[in-house]
Design goal:
The protein contains 4 helices and 2 strands. The protein has a two-stranded antiparallel ribbon. Strand 1 and strand 2 form a beta hairpin.
Length: 99
């Protein structure tokens, strides 16, 4: 699931404090409403995101990282840091692919 497109961005937005759908959409550049809704549902079903319905008028929906989601974000943080560090090495020599 983590390797699916936009999943990492949704988890990152949650870790950075997004709680409402519009906040996720604003923090994740380029994601469609349909795909964001789908990813939030998948992450909720997997126990990584918690969804809370606040019975007001209009109804409010809040999302937050579940404990397992926070643990996953913490586990992925070193990989994300490595990737950001690595992207700074654009001029590094590449190893040619074997044929």
């Amino acid at each position: 699931m983590v390797g699916r497109r936009w999943t990492g961005s949704v988890l990152q937005a949650a870790a950075q404090g997004a709680r409402r759908f519009g906040e996720y959409r604003a923090m994740i550049d380029g994601i469609s409403d349909r795909l964001l809704s789908q990813r939030l549902k998948e992450l909720e079903a997997a126990g990584l995101i918690e969804r809370t319905v606040i019975p007001t008028t209009p109804v409010q929906i809040r999302y937050q990282l579940a404990p397992d989601g926070q643990a996953l974000v913490n586990a992925l943080l070193p990989l994300a840091q490595w990737s950001m560090h690595r992207s700074g090495h654009r001029g590094a020599r590449r190893v040619p692919a074997s044929t």
